[in-house]
Amino acid sequence: MVSNEYEDYSDTVLYDVFYEAGTMLGGWLVAAKREALARGNTAAVAEYEAEHIAMLDERDDVGVFDRVAQIAKIEQWHVRCAELDAQKVLVAS
User: Fold this and answer.
1) Which residues of 46-83 are buried (b: 16+ CB within 10 A; e: fewer)?
2) Model confidence pLDDT, tens digit, residues 67-80
3) Assessment of whether the complete model's pTM goes beyond 0.70
């Protein structure tokens, strides 16, 4: 068992949290891409698009019962969302 804040989560709940963390990051990346597009920054558009695709591939590669990998991705993706938030990326609510 992994010892952390997710320790008490069932496998199903943990996977749901993991998957939703990826969905949340995907939303931030789409918002960042749209902002870059509005500014005419095609290089940033390509970078955000590539990051989004890579995140989706990473999410697909994590096993349904791989708690360690799921938790690592949840933490990584939450950090990335916070970075985008600090950059003042506007996410529609």
Assistant:
1) eebbebbeebeeebeebeeebbeebbebbeebeebbee
2) 999 999 999 999 99
3) yes
